[in-house]
Amino acid sequence: MLTNTSISLEKIRATLKTSMFSNFVNLGSIQVSNAVIMMLLYPLLAQKVGLEAFGNAMVANASVGVISIIVNFGTSQSGIKEIATHKDNREELSKIFFSTLLLRSSLFLILTAALAVYYYAGFHINLYFLFAIPLILAEILNPLFIYLGKESLSLYNASNVLAKLFIIILVYILIRGFEQAPWINFILGSVHFVVYLFLLVRISIISHLRFRLHSWAAFTDMIKNNFYLVGNNLSVQLQQSLMLLILAKWGNAAWIGPYSLCDKITWSGRLLIISVCNSVYPKAASIFQSDPELFKLFKKKIRKMLFLVFTSFSIFLMIFASPIIHLIAGHPDQNATFLLRIMALLQVIAAINSFNVIELLIRGSNLYIFRIAIILFSIALILAIGIALSKNLFLLGTYALIVEFSALLMYEYVIYKDKSQNSKVNG
Predict the structure, then answer these.
(1) Are 344 and 400 in contact (CB under 8 A)?
(2) Residue of higher predicted confidence among 330 and 369
C-alpha cells in the first residue's frame, strides 16, 4: 500500500511533467520571442531613424514602461493566484476578471486626467511620449494573468510571436527615416492592443464569464494589497538602472559599457528564472490552498531543481565568461570578463528569491514584499554610491550579489516567521 508521502511525491512528479513543463515552454517561448524581436528590430530601427531619434523613442518607451507598472498595479501577480485558486468557480472568476480590468482602466483614466492638467498648465508634452500611449492601453488589456492562472498559454504564446513578427514587417514598411521615429512605439502598442483585445474577448467567451464585480469592500482590499506589489515592482525597475546612473555621475565612466553588457547577460538568465517560477506559480497556489503539507514537499522539490539548474548555469557563465563577452561585444574585454565571472553567482540566488516571492504572494504577504522592496532600494542606493566613489571593479561586480543576498535573507526570515506564527495558531 502506498503511503501518503509517496502519493504526494507522485502528485508532484505528475505536476512537474505536465502543467509546469507546458507553462515553462510557453513562457520561455514568450521570453525568447521578446529577445529575438529586440535583436532584429532595434538594429533595424537604429539604421532607419538614426541613433538620436532611436534613443528618444527608447526613452519614451522606458517612461511609459514605468506608467504601465502603475496601471497594471500588480494585478498580473495577484491575478494569477486568484485565477488559479478559483478557476473552477465561474462566478468568482468573472469578478476577478472584470474587477482587474476595471482597476487598470480607472488608473489609466486618472493618469490621463493628470496628463491633461499638466498640458493645460502650460507644460510641454513630448511627441514621442504621446505616441507611446498605446503601449499603456495594451497593458490594460494584457490577459496573461488569466491565461497563466488557467494554465492555458498556447494561444497566448502563439499570438505574441505572430504579433512580434507583424511588428517587424510594419516597421520595415512604414518607418522610413527619423521623421517617423515617434511612430515606433505607436506601432508596438497598437499591434499588442489588438492582439490582447482578441485574447480577452476569446477567453471571456469560452470561459462563459459574465459581467460581475467585487463588492466595494473586496475591491478596496484588492487596491490595498496590490499597492504593495506595485511599490515592489517600481522599486525593482529603479534598482536595475540605479547603478548605471550613479556610475555615470560619480564612478569610472569607462566601466559603464562593461557593466551594462554584463547586466544584460545576467538579466537574460533572470528572464529564464522568471519563466520557470511563473510556470509553477498557478499550481503552487492551488496546492497551497488545498493541501499545505503537500506544498512543503512541492516547495522542497522546486527549490532543489532551481538550485541545481541555476548553479550549473552560474558555473557555465564563470567558465565561459571570456568567449561569451567576445561573442556578444565583438571583441575581448578584460573588465567585462572579470565582472561577469563575479556576477555569474547572481543566477542561483535570484532563482531561490523568485520562488520566495511567489511563496509570499501565495501566503498573502504583500505588505512584507513591499517593505523588503523599500529596504532593498535603500541598500542598493547606498551601495551604488559607495561603490561608484570607491572606483573598485571587484566591488562593482558584487553590487547585484549583495542586493540579491540581502533580499534572500529577508525573504527567508519573513517566510520562517509566517510559518512559525501559523504553527502557533494551529497548535
Answers:
(1) no
(2) 369
